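Lecture 7 notes: from sequence to structure.

We start with a single chain of 437 residues. Read the sequence below before looking at the structure.
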Amino acid sequence: MSADAVYLVAGVALLVGVVLPALLDRLSLSVPMVLIGVGMLVGLLSLPVGTNLDPIDLRPTIEHVAELAVLVALMGVGLALDRPLSLRRRGSWRAWGATWRLLLVAMPLCIGAVFVLGHWVLGLAPAAALLLGAVLAPTDPVLAGDVQVEGPDIETTPEELDEEDEVRFSLTSEAGLNDGLAFPFVYAAIFLVTLGSPLEWGLQWLAWDLVGRVVIGVGVGWLVGRVLAALAFRAPARSLRTAETGEPLLALAAILGAYGAAEVAQGYGFLAVFTCAMTLRSLERSSEYHRHMHEVVERLERLMVLIILLFIGIELTRGVLDALDWRGIVAGLALILVIRPLAASLSLRLGVRREDDLCGLDRRERAVVAFFGVRGIGSVYYLAYALGQAEFPDARWLWSTVAFTIVASVVIHGVSVNPAMRWVERHRGPQAEVTST
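Now the structure, written as tokens:
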């Protein structure tokens, strides 16, 4: 295939990505499923001579493209969430109860279960097993659009927001926060392969990587968000008040500024971007400006998703699964079908005495939240990052297993998302009016 033909294929693929959401609205298919299929068709063609798509060779490029995609998605998620979160209001923290359970209980359980499965059952080296668990633990803010909130609601009071759809709120807020919270465990795997026994580095990891860098990331994100919010809505000069001039690219400045500042301060940039977006959203909630920023971010996110999913699809037909064996299949399917659902179900019921205290979720909604732990582009970034920091055993096997798990998640969750959401909505009260995607 000539270079000119590549432009043609890319143009057709972009067109497909634009029109697919409307066409697939009522079908048991998702946009990621179709885009991966298009990528596979492209991969079956003869690519230009010298084209190298090996993930080992392209690791730095893959890392940075996936990193940018996750950052854009996190900003979109933070702007889309309407439910307030205030340090001074205990009630706002309780309203995020399902989120904290999924983050602080379900995610560590998933990491631990994958580690035990990988090391003790499948025979992986400890560092590789821990890295696999850390890489696959976070749910994805990029590919989970079908089970997330749709965007900023500027016409409803904060007290009324999201009350009807705890499922979408729980999955969206979880995806926004757990990308950053997976980083300490990725570092633990790196330290295990580079520094040896946890006795040598465990305390420092606990104090700095697990706690200190999280606090810095959240703090920097909050500070950048406050500064940008003050600039956008309350700057002395009207020319500086971007909310009045209608310039939505402030969202992109927020992404780069929060991420860069947090990384320079040695905090977690992913957490900073999400916190920055939430802080921006917390000021002047009824402003149309939030919707404008979200629309810009959403379009950029769609373009990034298109590029990455096409690449994944192409690689499926050009060798990324060559190292996949029964161990990788078992690990991926076990995580999607057993480990995540059980861990999330346990986290949502742990310590709850009454049925009506289950974070606003009924039995069916808990089942959907537990099942839809979509794996995606965040896993690609974490794996590429870790392999750039240290030499892990079975690197190609890890690439194959992560690719298989992402595709399996896209297919399994993509086929089941519309029926599952319709099933939940049919059993809600007669006043619940939630639009299914």
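The radius of gyration is 21 Å. Keep this in mind for problem set 3.
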